[in-house]
Amino acid sequence: MAKKAKSKFDPKVFLATVDGGRKVSNHRKDDVIFSQGAPADAVFYIQKGKVKVAVTSEQGKEAVVAILDAGSFLGEGCLIGQPLRLARATTMTDSSVMRVEKAEMVRVLHAEPIFGEIFTAYLLTRNSRIEGDLVDQLFNSSEKRLARTLLLLANFGKEGAPEPVLAKISQETLAEMVGTTRSRVSKFMNKFRKLGLIDYNGKLQVHSSLLSVVLHD
Predict the structure, then answer these.
(1) What are the tens digits of pLDDT across the range 169-178?
(2) Comparing C-alpha atoms, which of 152, 143, 217 is closest to residue 185?
(3) Residue range 71-96: average pLDDT?
(4) Helices 142-153 & 113-139, crossing angle to 10 degrees?
(5) For the purposes of burial, counting CB atoms within 10 Å of the CB of 113, is it exposed (0-12), middle (13-18) or buried (19 or more)?
(6) Which of 28, 141, 164, 202 has its CA 20 to 30 A from that of 105?
(7) Is the separation of the CB atoms in 164 and 198 below 8 Å?
(8) Distance, CA of 124 to CA of 58 (rounded, Å)
(9) Orientation angle between helical segments 142-153 and 182-194, nearest 10 degrees
(10) Strand ranges, E, within the chain
């Protein structure tokens, strides 16, 4: 008898279906996906929604590490032997998140080269973003850092047309991302709006002209 042909692996199907080692959870806004200090035993994939990753110091000060959209992975530190979560992940909107157990993630990365390529490309892009954030913190003013953050949240520089910032992001959260105070964020946001660089109309609309703030010396 002829052997049954192996079905072609489809990464989109893998990240959309529940199977051994994979399950999907639906979260409301402000749900905790994982806590800082919790066991790092799985990788998560955002199917729908927006997630905030933040670190809290022993003194209780919080810093926002990343705002992740649908199509993003998080919690990948478990793959390099990280025993505990270094940050907390919280939903910013109603979200659907897939949990992939560490063993299943390791298996598919070894068994399916196409998935390994996609995951590696994602990590390289994210690493480049982190390097850019570090340079931003070291050399740019808080006003420029806020402008860059808003542009990134609106997907400027990615494929496709820029979008409004769909999730309601508080000025306090923006201050935590930028590394400044809420009052300074409020001052800069008002300045950007008066200059026509952003608009508030139910949603925060970021215009490409905001790039002028980032590029201005």
Answers:
(1) 888 999 988 9
(2) 143
(3) 95
(4) 160
(5) exposed
(6) 28
(7) no
(8) 30
(9) 70
(10) 22-27, 32-34, 42-48, 50-56, 62-69, 73-74, 88-91, 95-101, 198-200, 204-206
Question: In this structure, what token pair is assigned to residue 125?
Answer: 């892009």
Structure tokens belonging to residue 159: 């494929």
Predicted model pTM: 0.81
Contacts of 183 (CB under 8 A, 6+ apart): none
Q: Classify 176 as helix, strand or coil.
A: helix
Between CA 145 and CA 2 the distance in angstroms is 62
Q: What's the pLDDT tens digit per position in 94-152?
A: 999 999 999 999 999 999 999 999 999 999 999 998 888 888 888 889 999 999 999 88
Q: In angstroms, what CA-CA distances link 26 with 43, 92, 212?
A: 16, 13, 39
CA-nearest of 141, 166, 125, 142 to 217 is 141
Please give the C-alpha separations between residue 23 and each of 11, 47, 205, in angstroms, as whole numbers: 15, 12, 35
3-class DSSP assignment, residue 128: helix
Other C-beta atoms lying within 10 Å of the C-beta of residue 122: 14
> Which three-class secondary structure state does DSSP give residue 90?
strand
